[in-house]
Amino acid sequence: MKQAMVILNPSSGHEAAIDYKEDIVSVIKEKGYEVVVKETEKKDDATVFAEEAVNDGYDYVIGVGGDGTINEVIAGLARYDQQPLFSFVPFGTVNDFARAIGIPLKPRDAIEWLKEARTEQRVDIGKINERYFVNVVALGAVAEATYEVGVEQKTRLGPLAYYIEGAKTLAENKVYPLTFKLSDDTIDEEAFLVVIGMTNSIAGFEKIATDAKLDDGYMHVFIVKKLAGFDLMTLLPSVLTGEFKDHEKVRYIKTKEIQIESMASLHTNIDGDEGEDLPLHLTVLPKHIRLLRK
Ligand SMILES: Nc1ncnc2c1ncn2[C@@H]1O[C@H](COP(=O)(O)OP(=O)(O)OP(=O)(O)O)[C@@H](O)[C@H]1O
Fold first, then answer.
1. What is the pLDDT of residues 191-230, one digit of tens each?
2. Which domain holds residue 102?
3. Which of 76, 95, 129, 148 sits between 20 and 30 A of 286, alpha carbons compared?
4. ipTM topping 0.90
5. Which of 6, 7, 8, 12 to mutate to test the pocket of ligand 1 (most atoms within 8 A of CB)?
Protein backbone atom coordinates (compact mmCIF):
# COMPACT_ATOMS: atom_id res chain seq x y z
CA MET A 1 0.00 0.00 0.00
CA LYS A 2 1.16 3.55 -0.71
CA GLN A 3 2.44 5.48 2.31
CA ALA A 4 1.60 9.08 3.27
CA MET A 5 3.00 11.26 6.04
CA VAL A 6 0.96 14.17 7.44
CA ILE A 7 3.25 16.76 9.07
CA LEU A 8 1.11 18.96 11.29
CA ASN A 9 1.98 22.02 13.36
CA PRO A 10 -0.62 21.88 16.17
CA SER A 11 0.12 25.49 17.16
CA SER A 12 -0.65 26.94 13.71
CA GLY A 13 -3.83 28.81 12.87
CA HIS A 14 -4.28 29.85 16.51
CA GLU A 15 -4.12 26.15 17.46
CA ALA A 16 -6.98 25.22 15.13
CA ALA A 17 -4.99 22.84 12.93
CA ILE A 18 -5.11 19.98 15.42
CA ASP A 19 -8.94 19.98 15.34
CA TYR A 20 -8.86 18.98 11.68
CA LYS A 21 -6.33 16.15 12.05
CA GLU A 22 -8.85 13.29 11.78
CA ASP A 23 -10.62 14.83 8.77
CA ILE A 24 -7.33 15.26 6.92
CA VAL A 25 -6.28 11.68 7.73
CA SER A 26 -9.63 10.33 6.41
CA VAL A 27 -9.22 12.21 3.14
CA ILE A 28 -5.74 10.80 2.59
CA LYS A 29 -6.94 7.29 3.48
CA GLU A 30 -9.76 7.64 0.94
CA LYS A 31 -7.09 8.38 -1.66
CA GLY A 32 -5.66 4.90 -0.95
CA TYR A 33 -2.75 5.69 1.39
CA GLU A 34 -1.67 4.31 4.71
CA VAL A 35 -1.22 7.43 6.88
CA VAL A 36 1.29 8.35 9.58
CA VAL A 37 0.84 11.70 11.41
CA LYS A 38 3.83 13.58 12.79
CA GLU A 39 3.14 16.59 15.01
CA THR A 40 5.79 19.29 15.27
CA GLU A 41 6.86 20.66 18.65
CA LYS A 42 9.39 23.27 17.63
CA LYS A 43 11.25 24.97 14.79
CA ASP A 44 12.78 22.62 12.17
CA ASP A 45 10.84 19.51 13.30
CA ALA A 46 8.88 19.66 10.04
CA THR A 47 12.13 19.59 8.03
CA VAL A 48 13.39 16.57 9.96
CA PHE A 49 10.08 14.71 9.42
CA ALA A 50 10.04 15.52 5.70
CA GLU A 51 13.60 14.21 5.31
CA GLU A 52 12.55 11.07 7.18
CA ALA A 53 9.64 10.66 4.73
CA VAL A 54 12.02 10.85 1.76
CA ASN A 55 14.53 8.44 3.29
CA ASP A 56 11.82 5.93 4.30
CA GLY A 57 10.36 5.94 0.78
CA TYR A 58 7.02 7.64 1.52
CA ASP A 59 4.93 8.36 -1.59
CA TYR A 60 3.08 11.46 -0.38
CA VAL A 61 3.75 14.19 2.23
CA ILE A 62 1.02 16.58 3.41
CA GLY A 63 1.99 19.71 5.36
CA VAL A 64 -0.58 21.21 7.73
CA GLY A 65 0.25 24.69 9.07
CA GLY A 66 1.19 28.24 8.16
CA ASP A 67 3.75 29.44 5.62
CA GLY A 68 6.51 28.76 8.18
CA THR A 69 5.60 25.08 8.44
CA ILE A 70 5.13 24.73 4.67
CA ASN A 71 8.60 26.26 4.18
CA GLU A 72 10.10 23.78 6.65
CA VAL A 73 8.43 20.73 5.02
CA ILE A 74 9.57 21.81 1.57
CA ALA A 75 13.10 22.46 2.89
CA GLY A 76 13.21 18.81 3.97
CA LEU A 77 12.05 17.56 0.56
CA ALA A 78 14.15 19.99 -1.49
CA ARG A 79 17.50 18.44 -0.61
CA TYR A 80 16.60 15.30 -2.59
CA ASP A 81 16.19 14.58 -6.29
CA GLN A 82 13.73 11.71 -5.75
CA GLN A 83 10.81 13.14 -3.78
CA PRO A 84 7.34 12.11 -2.65
CA LEU A 85 4.28 14.04 -3.87
CA PHE A 86 3.48 17.11 -1.76
CA SER A 87 0.23 18.85 -0.75
CA PHE A 88 -0.74 21.07 2.14
CA VAL A 89 -3.61 22.48 4.15
CA PRO A 90 -3.05 26.16 5.06
CA PHE A 91 -3.50 27.28 8.68
CA GLY A 92 -1.39 30.43 8.90
CA THR A 93 -1.91 34.15 9.04
CA VAL A 94 -0.97 35.07 5.47
CA ASN A 95 -0.88 31.77 3.53
CA ASP A 96 0.87 33.09 0.41
CA PHE A 97 1.52 29.69 -1.13
CA ALA A 98 -2.13 28.67 -0.75
CA ARG A 99 -3.24 31.94 -2.38
CA ALA A 100 -0.83 31.38 -5.27
CA ILE A 101 -2.13 27.86 -5.89
CA GLY A 102 -5.79 28.68 -5.31
CA ILE A 103 -6.24 26.53 -2.20
CA PRO A 104 -9.21 27.88 -0.19
CA LEU A 105 -8.19 29.55 3.05
CA LYS A 106 -11.09 28.16 5.11
CA PRO A 107 -10.02 24.79 6.59
CA ARG A 108 -13.22 22.90 5.57
CA ASP A 109 -12.93 24.13 1.98
CA ALA A 110 -9.19 23.41 1.89
CA ILE A 111 -9.86 19.81 2.99
CA GLU A 112 -12.47 19.46 0.21
CA TRP A 113 -9.85 20.83 -2.20
CA LEU A 114 -7.35 18.24 -0.93
CA LYS A 115 -9.90 15.51 -1.60
CA GLU A 116 -10.04 16.57 -5.24
CA ALA A 117 -6.29 17.15 -5.67
CA ARG A 118 -5.20 14.60 -8.28
CA THR A 119 -2.94 16.46 -10.71
CA GLU A 120 0.80 16.61 -10.27
CA GLN A 121 2.48 19.92 -11.12
CA ARG A 122 6.19 20.46 -10.69
CA VAL A 123 6.71 23.89 -9.13
CA ASP A 124 9.73 26.16 -8.63
CA ILE A 125 11.22 27.11 -5.29
CA GLY A 126 14.06 29.46 -4.46
CA LYS A 127 17.36 28.78 -2.73
CA ILE A 128 18.85 31.51 -0.52
CA ASN A 129 22.36 30.70 0.70
CA GLU A 130 21.86 27.24 2.27
CA ARG A 131 18.11 27.68 2.88
CA TYR A 132 15.03 27.44 0.68
CA PHE A 133 12.11 29.79 0.10
CA VAL A 134 8.73 29.00 -1.33
CA ASN A 135 7.06 32.40 -1.43
CA VAL A 136 9.03 35.47 -0.54
CA VAL A 137 12.25 36.93 0.77
CA ALA A 138 12.05 40.49 2.11
CA LEU A 139 14.74 42.83 3.36
CA GLY A 140 14.84 46.46 4.36
CA ALA A 141 12.64 48.55 6.58
CA VAL A 142 9.38 46.60 6.38
CA ALA A 143 11.21 43.28 6.79
CA GLU A 144 12.93 44.59 9.91
CA ALA A 145 9.50 45.65 11.19
CA THR A 146 8.04 42.14 10.93
CA TYR A 147 10.24 41.18 13.89
CA GLU A 148 8.41 43.77 15.94
CA VAL A 149 5.06 41.98 15.51
CA GLY A 150 4.34 40.08 18.71
CA VAL A 151 2.47 36.76 18.87
CA GLU A 152 -0.44 38.36 20.69
CA GLN A 153 -0.71 41.18 18.16
CA LYS A 154 -0.58 38.62 15.30
CA THR A 155 -3.31 36.50 16.91
CA ARG A 156 -5.53 39.53 17.44
CA LEU A 157 -5.01 41.34 14.16
CA GLY A 158 -3.76 38.75 11.65
CA PRO A 159 -1.96 40.20 8.59
CA LEU A 160 -3.07 43.67 9.69
CA ALA A 161 -0.46 43.51 12.46
CA TYR A 162 2.28 43.38 9.82
CA TYR A 163 0.79 46.26 7.88
CA ILE A 164 0.63 48.42 10.98
CA GLU A 165 4.30 47.79 11.76
CA GLY A 166 5.09 48.30 8.07
CA ALA A 167 3.27 51.62 8.03
CA LYS A 168 5.36 52.85 10.97
CA THR A 169 8.52 52.21 8.96
CA LEU A 170 7.03 54.02 5.96
CA ALA A 171 6.86 57.13 8.11
CA GLU A 172 10.58 56.78 8.96
CA ASN A 173 11.57 56.09 5.32
CA LYS A 174 14.95 54.57 6.21
CA VAL A 175 17.02 53.34 3.25
CA TYR A 176 19.88 50.84 2.96
CA PRO A 177 22.81 50.93 0.50
CA LEU A 178 22.58 47.67 -1.47
CA THR A 179 24.47 46.10 -4.36
CA PHE A 180 22.64 43.67 -6.66
CA LYS A 181 24.82 41.48 -8.86
CA LEU A 182 23.19 39.88 -11.88
CA SER A 183 24.91 37.74 -14.53
CA ASP A 184 25.16 40.75 -16.88
CA ASP A 185 24.82 43.78 -14.63
CA THR A 186 25.61 45.29 -11.21
CA ILE A 187 23.14 47.72 -9.67
CA ASP A 188 23.82 49.97 -6.67
CA GLU A 189 20.67 51.30 -5.06
CA GLU A 190 19.63 53.04 -1.86
CA ALA A 191 16.63 50.85 -1.12
CA PHE A 192 13.80 51.24 1.33
CA LEU A 193 12.60 47.70 0.77
CA VAL A 194 13.47 44.69 -1.37
CA VAL A 195 10.97 41.92 -2.00
CA ILE A 196 11.77 38.78 -3.95
CA GLY A 197 8.74 36.66 -4.82
CA MET A 198 8.40 33.22 -6.36
CA THR A 199 4.63 33.45 -6.88
CA ASN A 200 1.99 36.11 -7.50
CA SER A 201 1.09 36.26 -3.79
CA ILE A 202 3.42 38.37 -1.66
CA ALA A 203 2.48 39.07 1.97
CA GLY A 204 -1.14 38.33 1.07
CA PHE A 205 -1.18 40.78 -1.86
CA GLU A 206 -1.96 39.00 -5.09
CA LYS A 207 -1.21 41.82 -7.51
CA ILE A 208 2.45 42.59 -6.87
CA ALA A 209 4.17 39.98 -9.05
CA THR A 210 1.29 39.86 -11.51
CA ASP A 211 3.00 37.70 -14.11
CA ALA A 212 4.74 35.26 -11.73
CA LYS A 213 3.85 31.62 -12.37
CA LEU A 214 4.49 28.63 -10.12
CA ASP A 215 6.74 27.07 -12.76
CA ASP A 216 8.11 30.01 -14.78
CA GLY A 217 11.72 29.38 -13.70
CA TYR A 218 12.16 32.95 -12.41
CA MET A 219 12.21 34.94 -9.21
CA HIS A 220 10.64 38.40 -9.26
CA VAL A 221 12.70 41.11 -7.55
CA PHE A 222 11.17 44.46 -6.52
CA ILE A 223 13.50 47.17 -5.25
CA VAL A 224 11.64 50.07 -3.65
CA LYS A 225 13.87 53.17 -3.75
CA LYS A 226 13.95 56.05 -1.27
CA LEU A 227 10.50 57.61 -1.19
CA ALA A 228 9.68 61.29 -1.27
CA GLY A 229 6.61 62.93 0.29
CA PHE A 230 3.88 62.16 -2.18
CA ASP A 231 5.22 58.81 -3.47
CA LEU A 232 3.26 56.84 -0.89
CA MET A 233 -0.01 58.16 -2.27
CA THR A 234 0.67 56.40 -5.55
CA LEU A 235 2.79 53.48 -4.29
CA LEU A 236 0.27 52.04 -1.84
CA PRO A 237 -2.65 51.86 -4.31
CA SER A 238 -0.32 50.36 -6.95
CA VAL A 239 0.06 47.29 -4.67
CA LEU A 240 -3.65 46.67 -5.14
CA THR A 241 -4.03 47.59 -8.80
CA GLY A 242 -1.17 45.57 -10.28
CA GLU A 243 0.85 48.67 -11.23
CA PHE A 244 3.46 48.28 -8.49
CA LYS A 245 6.26 47.03 -10.74
CA ASP A 246 5.79 49.98 -13.11
CA HIS A 247 5.89 52.61 -10.34
CA GLU A 248 8.70 55.16 -10.84
CA LYS A 249 10.16 54.36 -7.39
CA VAL A 250 10.21 50.59 -8.03
CA ARG A 251 12.85 48.74 -10.01
CA TYR A 252 11.60 45.33 -11.19
CA ILE A 253 14.00 42.53 -12.16
CA LYS A 254 13.01 39.07 -13.37
CA THR A 255 15.97 36.72 -12.92
CA LYS A 256 17.13 33.16 -12.27
CA GLU A 257 19.99 34.23 -10.01
CA ILE A 258 21.00 37.29 -7.96
CA GLN A 259 23.63 38.20 -5.38
CA ILE A 260 22.76 40.90 -2.80
CA GLU A 261 25.41 42.64 -0.72
CA SER A 262 25.52 45.64 1.61
CA MET A 263 27.86 47.58 3.85
CA ALA A 264 24.91 47.96 6.24
CA SER A 265 23.86 45.25 8.65
CA LEU A 266 20.33 44.06 7.94
CA HIS A 267 18.22 40.98 8.31
CA THR A 268 16.02 39.11 5.92
CA ASN A 269 12.60 37.61 6.31
CA ILE A 270 12.11 34.27 4.55
CA ASP A 271 8.52 33.06 4.04
CA GLY A 272 7.42 35.10 7.06
CA ASP A 273 10.10 33.98 9.47
CA GLU A 274 13.52 35.34 10.42
CA GLY A 275 16.07 34.55 7.71
CA GLU A 276 19.70 34.82 6.64
CA ASP A 277 21.89 37.88 7.04
CA LEU A 278 23.64 39.40 4.03
CA PRO A 279 25.43 38.66 1.72
CA LEU A 280 22.77 36.65 -0.07
CA HIS A 281 23.01 34.38 -3.07
CA LEU A 282 19.62 33.49 -4.53
CA THR A 283 18.87 30.97 -7.27
CA VAL A 284 15.74 29.33 -8.66
CA LEU A 285 15.37 25.55 -8.42
CA PRO A 286 13.04 25.09 -11.40
CA LYS A 287 10.19 22.56 -11.22
CA HIS A 288 11.76 21.11 -8.10
CA ILE A 289 8.71 20.15 -5.97
CA ARG A 290 6.04 17.61 -6.97
CA LEU A 291 2.90 19.50 -5.94
CA LEU A 292 -0.34 17.52 -6.03
CA ARG A 293 -3.14 19.94 -6.87
CA LYS A 294 -6.63 20.07 -8.29
N1 LIG B 1 4.20 22.75 18.42
C2 LIG B 1 4.72 23.95 18.12
N3 LIG B 1 4.52 25.00 18.96
C4 LIG B 1 5.01 26.23 18.67
N5 LIG B 1 5.72 26.53 17.54
C6 LIG B 1 5.92 25.53 16.65
C7 LIG B 1 5.43 24.20 16.89
N8 LIG B 1 5.77 23.43 15.84
C9 LIG B 1 6.45 24.24 14.97
N10 LIG B 1 6.55 25.49 15.46
C11 LIG B 1 7.16 26.69 14.80
O12 LIG B 1 6.12 27.62 14.48
C13 LIG B 1 6.50 28.33 13.28
C14 LIG B 1 5.31 29.07 12.68
O15 LIG B 1 4.31 28.21 12.36
P16 LIG B 1 3.34 28.36 11.12
O17 LIG B 1 3.86 29.28 10.10
O18 LIG B 1 2.98 26.99 10.69
O19 LIG B 1 2.01 28.89 11.78
P20 LIG B 1 1.44 30.30 12.14
O21 LIG B 1 2.39 31.01 13.05
O22 LIG B 1 0.03 30.09 12.61
O23 LIG B 1 1.37 30.98 10.72
P24 LIG B 1 2.03 32.31 10.17
O25 LIG B 1 3.53 32.07 10.12
O26 LIG B 1 1.43 32.47 8.82
O27 LIG B 1 1.64 33.36 11.14
C28 LIG B 1 7.09 27.23 12.44
O29 LIG B 1 7.94 27.76 11.45
C30 LIG B 1 7.84 26.40 13.49
O31 LIG B 1 9.20 26.83 13.59
1. 988 999 999 999 888 989 999 999 999 999 999 998 887 8
2. 2-117
3. 95
4. yes
5. 12
